[in-house]
C-alpha cells in the first residue's frame, strides 16, 4: 500500500514530456513533475519519493525531503495565516496547514512552533497540530527508574522544560537539572527519574551514578590533553563555567576529577587541574 505524507519507493509506469507517472497502488497514478526528475527514468525503474496532494487534491510526488512526515514532530515556521488556519514552511513548495482548532496556543505569523503532522481522515489533507494530547498514549506510564528514553523538547514552564517522552507521554526536566542549552524541537536522550502517583514524570538528562562520572572523566582527560596538560577549572571554580565547558553540574565535575586524582592521573588545585607528571 502507499500512504500520503510518507517517503516510499514507487515504480515508474510511464514517462512523458511533463514528467513521470508512478504506480501508487491504492492511490492510483502518482505524478512526478519533470523538474523533479534528476536522472534518466524509464518505465519499470523505481524511485524514492515523498507523496502528498497538490493544489488540485491529486496525489503528487517529489524527490525533496520535507522537514517531517506524517506521524513525526518538527519545529516549523508560520509563513501565512488566513481564514482557515496557519500555513507552515515544511520544506516543500506547498505549505502545510495547521487548522485553527489544532492550534494550542493560537499561532502567529513569523513564529516557529513544534508541531506533529497528521493525515486528516475527512479531507486526506496533510495537516499540522500543536494539540499533542490527542496523539499521546492513554495508558498509564510504566517506565522504570533511570530507563533511557527518547525526548523531544516541547516547551518551557515555570519549573522546567516540558518534554515528550517516547512520543507517548509528557514529562518535565527541572531547570536546576539542566546543564546544556535546550531549545524547542530538540531531540535528545534522557532518563526517567520518577513516575509520580498522579502520573507526572520527572526526567533527567544525565544518568546518576559512577557510570556518568566515568564518562565525564574521559572527557576531562581528553580536554586536558588538548589544552597542553593544564585546565583552568578546579574544584573551587564557578559552577556556570563548569556547566559551559562540560555541560554538567559542579557536583559531578568534582566527583569526576576526584576519581582521576585517586587514579593518580591529575593534580587538583582550587582553580585548575593538571595532568600528573610521570
Description:
This protein has 278 residues and is mostly beta strands. 14% of the residues lie in helices and 37% in strands. The chain has a 5-stranded antiparallel beta sheet, with no helix packed on it. A 5-stranded antiparallel beta sheet has the order 8-7-6-9-10, with no helix packed on it. Strands 13-12-11-14-15 form a 5-stranded antiparallel beta sheet, with no helix packed on it. It is elongated and about 75 Å long. 24% of the residues are buried. Belongs to the CvfB family.
What is the secondary structure topology, with strand pairs?
Layout: E1 7-15, E2 19-23, E3 29-33, E4 46-53, E5 59-62, E6 73-81, E7 85-89, E8 96-99, E9 112-119, E10 126-129, E11 148-156, E12 160-165, E13 169-174, E14 187-195, E15 201-204, H1 210-226, E16 230-231, H2 239-246, H3 250-262, E17 266-268, E18 273-275
Antiparallel strand pairs: 1-2, 1-4, 2-3, 4-5, 6-7, 6-9, 7-8, 9-10, 11-12, 11-14, 12-13, 14-15, 16-18, 17-18
How is this structure best summarized?
The protein has 3 helices and 18 strands. The chain is mainly beta and 278 residues long. Belongs to the CvfB family.
- Mean pLDDT level: 92
Instruction: Work out the oligomeric state of the chains in this entry.
Output: single chain
Shape: elongated
Stretches where pLDDT falls below 50 for ≥5 residues?
A: none
Query: Secondary-structure element order, as H and E?
Result: EEEEEEEEEEEEEEEHEHHEE
Largest sheet: 5 strands, antiparallel
Strand content: 35-45%
Number of strands: 18
| DSSP helix fraction | 10-25%
* Order of the strands making up the biggest sheet: 3-2-1-4-5
Radius of gyration: 25 Å
Number of helices: 3
Structural class: mainly beta
Distance between the termini: 66 Å
Family: Belongs to the CvfB family.
Domain Conserved virulence factor B-like winged helix: 218-275
Domain Conserved virulence factor B first S1: 4-64, 70-129
Protein name: S1-like domain-containing RNA-binding protein
Amino acid at each position: 500500500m502507499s500512504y500520503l505524507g510518507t517517503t516510499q519507493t514507487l515504480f515508474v509506469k510511464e514517462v512523458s514530456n511533463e514528467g513521470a507517472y508512478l504506480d501508487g497502488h491504492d492511490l492510483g497514478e502518482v505524478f512526478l513533475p519533470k523538474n523533479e526528475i534528476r536522472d534518466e527514468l524509464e518505465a519499470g525503474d523505481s524511485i524514492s519519493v515523498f507523496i502528498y496532494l497538490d493544489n488540485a487534491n491529486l496525489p503528487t510526488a517529489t524527490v525533496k525531503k520535507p522537514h517531517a512526515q506524517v506521524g513525526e514532530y518538527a519545529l516549523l515556521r508560520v509563513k501565512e495565516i488566513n481564514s482557515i488556519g496557519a500555513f507552515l514552511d515544511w520544506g516543500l513548495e506547498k505549505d502545510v496547514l495547521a487548522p485553527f482548532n489544532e492550534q494550542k496556543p493560537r499561532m502567529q505569523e513569523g513564529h516557529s512552533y513544534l508541531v506533529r503532522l497528521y493525515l486528516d481522515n475527512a479531507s486526506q489533507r496533510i495537516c499540522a497540530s500543536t494539540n499533542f494530547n490527542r496523539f499521546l498514549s492513554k495508558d498509564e506510564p510504566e517506565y522504570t527508574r533511570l530507563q533511557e528514553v527518547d525526548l523531544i523538547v516541547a516547551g518551557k514552564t515555570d519549573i522546567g522544560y516540558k518534554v515528550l517522552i517516547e512520543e507517548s507521554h509528557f514529562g518535565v526536566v527541572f531547570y536546576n537539572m539542566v546543564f546544556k542549552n535546550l531549545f524547542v524541537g530538540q531531540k535528545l536522550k534522557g532518563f526517567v527519574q520518577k513516575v509520580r502517583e498522579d502520573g507526572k514524570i520527572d526526567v533527567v538528562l544525565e544518568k546518576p551514578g559512577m557510570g556518568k562520572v566515568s564518562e565525564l572523566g574521559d572527557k576531562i582527560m581528553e580536554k586536558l590533553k588538548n589544552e597542553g596538560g593544564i585546565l583552568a577549572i578546579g574544584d573551587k571554580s564557578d559552577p556556570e563555567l563548569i556547566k559551559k565547558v562540560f555541560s554538567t553540574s559542579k557536583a559531578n565535575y568534582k566527583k569526576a576529577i576526584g576519581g582521576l586524582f585517586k587514579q593518580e592521573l591529575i593534580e587538583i588545585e582550587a582553580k585548575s587541574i593538571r595532568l600528573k607528571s610521570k
